């Protein structure tokens, strides 16, 4: 038992590495703050464009969504960071991570928003259009408020997964929380930094998990 505690729950090592882990946590939060809103905006734009009903546009959007949902985000990140310089576009670590995560998550958000839009009764759309509202105004004031409310639990779940995806940044040596913990583990030959990092993730994400649970219960009760 003492060996287990020393290797996984060493308080002295936890206190020693905590400042560095908190610095890594700041980078994780920064990545989430950048990629989640932008991913949502891109995903919403894609879902709205699908309402245009153009065969060519629909085909292009389907390819975009299907490709990015099927393509591993880790490989996408490696390609953007290490491959794009060969095409004349060199991005910093944080730019590459943000680009990869926005591309990947926007495809999932687009499908969630599309499902929400399709859940709104067509009669309401027709009624709004009959009052003189244009397509954009109908989408903004009638469809989207209901659509987002209908899929809010799924949307929050995708946001939760998107935040956890920020750990992929360690692949391109960006000092986010997971990479900082792994470096500390390697330097100290002790697993405690990873346990502390996991607890920091838990503290950051647990309120969001509880929020998702509440929203799901309310959706079922409706």
UniProtKB/TrEMBL annotation:
<keyword id="KW-0813">Transport</keyword>
<feature type="transmembrane region" description="Helical">
    <location>
        <begin position="27"/>
        <end position="49"/>
    </location>
</feature>
<feature type="domain" description="ABC transmembrane type-1">
    <location>
        <begin position="25"/>
        <end position="213"/>
    </location>
</feature>
<keyword id="KW-1003">Cell membrane</keyword>
<dbReference type="GO" id="GO:0043190">
    <property type="term" value="C:ATP-binding cassette (ABC) transporter complex"/>
</dbReference>
<dbReference type="Pfam" id="PF00528">
    <property type="entry name" value="BPD_transp_1"/>
</dbReference>
<keyword id="KW-1133">Transmembrane helix</keyword>
<dbReference type="InterPro" id="IPR000515">
    <property type="entry name" value="MetI-like"/>
</dbReference>
<dbReference type="InterPro" id="IPR043429">
    <property type="entry name" value="ArtM/GltK/GlnP/TcyL/YhdX-like"/>
</dbReference>
<keyword id="KW-0029">Amino-acid transport</keyword>
<comment type="function">
    <text>Part of the binding-protein-dependent transport system for glutamine; probably responsible for the translocation of the substrate across the membrane.</text>
</comment>
<dbReference type="InterPro" id="IPR035906">
    <property type="entry name" value="MetI-like_sf"/>
</dbReference>
<protein>
    <submittedName>
        <fullName>Amino acid ABC transporter permease</fullName>
    </submittedName>
</protein>
<dbReference type="GO" id="GO:0006865">
    <property type="term" value="P:amino acid transport"/>
</dbReference>
<keyword id="KW-0472">Membrane</keyword>
<dbReference type="GO" id="GO:0022857">
    <property type="term" value="F:transmembrane transporter activity"/>
</dbReference>
<keyword id="KW-0812">Transmembrane</keyword>
<comment type="similarity">
    <text>Belongs to the binding-protein-dependent transport system permease family. HisMQ subfamily.</text>
</comment>
<feature type="transmembrane region" description="Helical">
    <location>
        <begin position="194"/>
        <end position="215"/>
    </location>
</feature>
<feature type="transmembrane region" description="Helical">
    <location>
        <begin position="61"/>
        <end position="82"/>
    </location>
</feature>
<dbReference type="InterPro" id="IPR010065">
    <property type="entry name" value="AA_ABC_transptr_permease_3TM"/>
</dbReference>
């Amino acid at each position: 038992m003492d060996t287990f505690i020393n290797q996984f729950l060493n308080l002295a090592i936890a206190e020693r590495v905590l400042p560095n882990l908190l610095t890594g946590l700041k980078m994780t939060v920064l990545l989430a703050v950048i990629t989640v809103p932008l991913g949502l905006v891109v995903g919403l734009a894609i879902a709205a464009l699908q309402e245009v009903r153009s065969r060519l546009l629909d085909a292009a959007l389907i390819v975009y969504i299907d490709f990015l949902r099927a393509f591993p985000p880790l490989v996408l990140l490696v390609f953007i960071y290490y491959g794009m310089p060969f095409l004349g576009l060199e991005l910093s670590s944080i730019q590459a991570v943000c680009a990869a995560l926005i591309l990947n998550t926007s495809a999932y958000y687009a499908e969630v928003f599309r499902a929400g839009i399709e859940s709104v009764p067509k009669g309401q759309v027709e009624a709004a259009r009959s009052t003189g509202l244009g397509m954009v105004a109908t989408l903004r004031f009638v469809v989207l408020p209901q659509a987002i409310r209908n899929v809010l639990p799924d949307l929050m779940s995708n946001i939760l997964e998107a935040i956890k995806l920020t750990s992929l940044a360690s692949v391109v040596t960006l000092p986010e929380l997971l990479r900082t913990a792994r470096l500390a583990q390697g330097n100290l030959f002790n697993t405690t930094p990873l346990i502390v990092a996991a607890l920091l993730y838990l503290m950051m994400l647990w309120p969001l998990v509880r929020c998702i649970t509440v929203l799901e219960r309310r959706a079922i009760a409706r």
